[in-house]
Amino acid sequence: MGTLLVLWGFLLISLMAIGGFFMFRKFLKKLPKDDGKSVMDWEEYYIKKTLHMWEVKEKALLEELVAPVPELFRDVAKHTIASKIGHVALEKNQNRITQESIIEGYIIATPKRDHKFLRKKLKEKEIDVAPYEHLFTLSKSNYRDNWQSKYRKTKA
């Protein structure tokens, strides 16, 4: 009986720690940065600003790219990636979301471990990855905070 009670306590503490971790991450994304807006505020801004620029083909490509994400987290991942794609498209002054901006935004928004899947998917679709190699060489930890200036440097 004592062992069962200890296991039950360990399970509850573990589940609360996991839940607390994800709640804390969400809390950190909601904290305002130097410009007065939080990461989530900027995500919403880019989504709203570029919503009219998405076409069916591009939406389908984004759905394909986020398919390996577990269903529980897929909506959050799609939202985060779509906002980064919107940011890239606005930086380039595009009138619509293109396949190139989707790929660039996906690379910037995702950690390095997801790039293997992207390379595989692009190979299946017979899309050349050479124009994006400079982005693949960066890891998310290298450009997460200041990715705009590093992105501009690689384009120069």
UniProtKB/TrEMBL annotation:
InterPro entries: YneK (IPR020203)
Transmembrane regions: 6-24
Keywords: Membrane, Transmembrane, Transmembrane helix
Name the UniProt record assigns to this protein: DUF2621 domain-containing protein
